[in-house]
Please model this.
Amino acid sequence: MRSQVSTILVLGGAVVLVLGALLGAAPPVAAQDGEQDPVLGQSCPGLPGCTITADVSPQPAQVGEGVTASGNYQPCTTAQFMVRVDWGDGALEDGPSHEGDPNHDPVPYSFAHAYDSPGDHTIAVALLRQGDEGQDCAALITDTLTVEPAFGSITVEKSEANGTLPEDWAFEIGGPADSSYLSSSGETVSDLPLGAYRITEVGPSGWHLASVGGEGCTQDGQSAQTTLLFHGQSITCTLTNEADLPSIVLEKQVSDDNETWHDADTPPGPFIAEFDPAFWRFVVSNTGNVDLTALVVTDTVLGEICTIDMLSAGDEGSCFFTSLAEEGQHQNLGFVAAQYLTGTVTAQDPGHYLGVGYLVPTATPTPEPPAPRREKDTPEPATPAPPAPTATPILPTTSPTPTSFVEVLGVEMLPETGVPPTPTGHPTWLVAAILTIASGAALHLLSGKR
Model:
């Protein structure tokens, strides 16, 4: 009986000690049972002895301004603990894990955030414990933050270049939600919502934006860009202009091997064999102070060569073309046309080459040397000429008609009519007869002299 009473007293004393410990360890700021946890999407029952504090500042805050949630937490058991913050605008952040111990000092934490839009936001900071079955909520604290619209200001200043600029310049400042503000040089535009802005010049033609200065200001083509990041920020952008001085140069070159390039502005240029490839290079240089766009390179003989979308001031680009060489002296004229802000600029350059036709060689026969003469060879005797024919004298016959005539080499002349007779059919016989008569007359004369 005495042992049973002792057991009851021991059990009762243990219950009193546990209750006393729980009541004595109540946290100064702890989650209430049944309180909805925005972080976990469920109630946070809390763990006895686990506490967390939170300080959210500044209050109120402006859009884009940095907001800090900081404090410390006290673990209530030996386990892994972590702090998670819900900023109330859909953003969640987790802190590092920490091996907690009730005997350790409170553990500090800190988070930072910026809001994109104004409004009231509930910030929840939870202390999570990693248990055997996953994370559970050891403590929770919440706070409400009002975020007000934030504003900044932009000032545009005009800097002169290339002489005095006209005074009628204006600047269009375009901002978030298609907002637009108009200002002049040196004027400050205030109460601008935070966000990105583009500054565009409105002024006379013949000028272009050369550079943009000022902290937070950058150049983007012919406009400036800047961004207001926090409440009360003031930005000053300085814009510098130059007069438009567009200029373009075209250098046309020709090569017979695609390696050595000739300017060939004057004839004859390089010699290229007919039907061999003629290589062409067109080098376009932007020698002005404005960007050039829509560059088109053409040639009077080759046609359209290429197009170049854009060529910045000081840059150059090249186009290549190949054709077959033709015989004779050739001249091509290259052209380039480009657009700039307010007009068109052009250039041209000639090129020459001399096409050389192929020569077909003809074979020249080589004479054969004469056969060498042998010493023992006896020259063959010359063939004697045939003997001259012996003339046989023929006695003349008396013509029945006493008509005289002269017969020479078979040709009769009729003195009565003067008509030339037809030649005889035997001229050789007639010659022999004449020679016989002449010989007889000569012998008669010689015998008479004796």
In short: The chain has two helices and 31 strands. Residues 2-24 form the longest helix (23 residues).
